[in-house]
Amino acid sequence: MKSTVLRAVLTSSLLASSVLLGGQAYAKTLVYCSEANPETFNPAIGTADSTMDAAAKTIFNRLVEFKPGTTEVGPALAESWEVSADGKIYTFHLRHGVKFQSNDHFTPSREFNADDVLYTFNRQRDASNPYHKLGGGAYEYFNALGMGTLIDKIDKVDDYTVRFTLTAANVTFLPGIALDYLSILSLEQTEKMVAAGTPELIDSEPVGTGPFVLQAYVPDSQIRYAANKDYWRGPPKIDTLVFAVTPEPTTRVERLKANECQVAAPPPPSAVADLRTDLDITVLDLKGQNIGILGFNVEHQPLGDVRVRMALAKAVDRKAIVDAVYAGAGAVAGSVVPPAQIGAVTDAGIDYDPDGAKTLLKEAGHESDLKISLWAMPVSRPYNPNAKRMAEMIQAEWAKVGVKAEIVSFEWGEYLKRTAGGEQDAYLLGGSSDNGDPDNMLSYLLSCDGVKGGSNRSRWCDPAFEKLLQDGRVAADPKQRADIYARAQAILKVEVPVAPIAHSVVAIPIRKSVLNYVLDPFGRQNFAAVDMAE
């Protein structure tokens, strides 16, 4: 019944896109078939791509942003900046005349200024900030990427100038603040919603400075946005944007073909060849910026024993998984670091060796008694298009070496929350790079700060590895950084907090009626400049 209702709603939306007034198109609607509900509409407390697509890229802006289709940082809410000679002080000059959006509960009385920048950062970095605990007070990205220890202080020079002082020079700082989780929030909205006793509206009915205004959200169904007519870059070309929440990949393909949506989250790899033959559809490819992993929670025994982790990794036939799950759109991973990035190596994966796995398990005293949970994602993600199938294959492989695995899954937001809390034994996850730098993936998945923040779901903290991460953030010479990250990957191969499984080629299908769509190098969706053919 829900599917029938949703199809009717989407059909109505599409009809609205072709209403004419005086021979001219009166309204344009674009429907995007997304893969999951957002966890929240506040990027600061979210982690999933579904959250960043539905919130950060639509409702908000950052101080600086990646230029469309590139990994190059450009101006956004900060129109310019200077860096001190020692690389420790960044002074940002903010854009004038930028308006925050309005909604039923909030109408801004002022424009964007330095107070909103300080609020956005200080809420996350300062536990004594009066708003730090809002929304649960868990800032996974901020903590995982070390922003709290990197930023020494933030000063408001005047209403349109902000100065960041770092504890040390850091070559990842500028691309780091371009990440979606550092979308600039409205201090005034927070103050008014807290004073009114409705702080939850900050996360469920947000206002930003971005291209679209949130109108309505029905979980497991759709999200509707209207174009922000006051957007500082100019109003979007489309009047209405709809996210049709469609977790089943084959259903997304059906809806795309039927023109019920015009852009879709990645289809199952087996459907890509057929989509390429459709004269009304273009398939765009993104290579080399993600990793699918099998992780081990080292705080759950006996996974704290490296012999057990290595044995479980050796028992997994990664090539068979890639053949079955990625269907020609993936490659066996040589490392956690995606191959397109500086310092990536090809020999840090764990080779298939079931006999070696049995030997290690016997040495560790678990020849036939090991029982663990294997958590599998409930959604199709670019780095893992079918986690359930992958889990079933791993379960069968582990059974061959005497290990019994129980497959566990939850709704996507719950899955992320519970794994961040460390409930899992082994787990399937991964990620797409946010900025094309190896520090991003390694720090988010495996740093000591990530253990505290929840992004390091292996709960593994290694001083030697952590030192290399710190060295990589300071080194400016690309050759030196490549060597640092090669050594970091060598540690991962020995310690096995995660076993790299595959890098995938991400396919994004769009209908040819969609104009000006630019493929994001990190697999996110940005519809600010998109138009529809009339």
TrEMBL record:
<dbReference type="InterPro" id="IPR023765">
    <property type="entry name" value="SBP_5_CS"/>
</dbReference>
<dbReference type="GO" id="GO:1904680">
    <property type="term" value="F:peptide transmembrane transporter activity"/>
</dbReference>
<dbReference type="InterPro" id="IPR000914">
    <property type="entry name" value="SBP_5_dom"/>
</dbReference>
<dbReference type="GO" id="GO:0030288">
    <property type="term" value="C:outer membrane-bounded periplasmic space"/>
</dbReference>
<dbReference type="GO" id="GO:0043190">
    <property type="term" value="C:ATP-binding cassette (ABC) transporter complex"/>
</dbReference>
<dbReference type="InterPro" id="IPR030678">
    <property type="entry name" value="Peptide/Ni-bd"/>
</dbReference>
<dbReference type="Pfam" id="PF00496">
    <property type="entry name" value="SBP_bac_5"/>
</dbReference>
<protein>
    <submittedName>
        <fullName>ABC transporter substrate-binding protein</fullName>
    </submittedName>
</protein>
<feature type="signal peptide">
    <location>
        <begin position="1"/>
        <end position="27"/>
    </location>
</feature>
<keyword id="KW-0732">Signal</keyword>
<dbReference type="GO" id="GO:0042938">
    <property type="term" value="P:dipeptide transport"/>
</dbReference>
<feature type="domain" description="Solute-binding protein family 5">
    <location>
        <begin position="72"/>
        <end position="451"/>
    </location>
</feature>
<comment type="similarity">
    <text>Belongs to the bacterial solute-binding protein 5 family.</text>
</comment>
<dbReference type="InterPro" id="IPR039424">
    <property type="entry name" value="SBP_5"/>
</dbReference>
